[in-house]
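Quick entry between incubations.
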Amino acid sequence: MTMFTRNDKASEPNPVSPARPQGTGAAADYATRPQATTQPLSGTTMTTQNVSVISKALRITGQLESTEDIRIDGEVDGDVRAVSVNVGPNARVKGTVRGESVELAGTVEGRIEAKKVVLASTARMTGDVVHQDIKIESGAYIDGHLKPEYGKQENRPVSQIKPVASAARETPKPSGDVAARA
Amino acid sequence: MLSPMRTFARPNGRSDAAASRSHLGRSLTVKGIIDTDGEVHIHGRMLGRINAGSLVVSPEGYVEGDIVARDAHIGGRFNGRIFALNVTLDSSADVSGRIFHNTVTVERGARVDARMPWRPPSFFETLEQLPETKE
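Done. Structure below.
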């Protein structure tokens, strides 16, 4: 009982009581709205079926791989690979971020490998950035090398990501590029 | 390290839910540990451990590993162990493993190949370490 309320004000309206009847009520509440699992989340424009959102209260230790877009507002301890990665202002990634396009407004400790890199003014980047095309806004913190050689060397894993049709907007000619390198 | 206690710390504060709701899309594969007080929706694949306030595995989702949550709502495939006060298995669920629960709802049509031990709420409060279970 104490565990459910210990971090909250006493005015919590609906404390989950360990009493069985109430627990059943919570489960029934789920059952009455089973659609929730398949509906895109409402309220946020970012949250469509195709975009993955790591919210600010979430922490992932391990690796993320997607053939679509990822938005990170939380904390990731590990590598991220996606078509387009957006690291929000209060987010933090420790590891390598790979993608066709990476937008950073938060913190990355590690490495960025992407065709198109945008470092916003709030970005804090510790480590190397391998890119083809980079934009750095005034105020961004960078401690590392910028290497404009993305697409020349060991970036095969990225190129192996097959962009889903809907996600291919950032990548005008990915297949031709791959062929040229192969 | 990760304390499962944290996963129960926050009741379902609805105002807060939107901000702390994470959405793992259909094409996302996560290997490792997911840790949050909020809500997680999994439409893709997740291998590893999930600590969450509330977890939803959608019909196209797949989870393998341990789940520790207050509410677990499974609509997709799951293989492993669930430790949750309230468990709901949708009609589209395909579940195997063990489901430690206090209340459980199984919809008609769900495929369940699992042991479903009932536990008192205190069991979930004291989940400092997940018990070892061997098949």
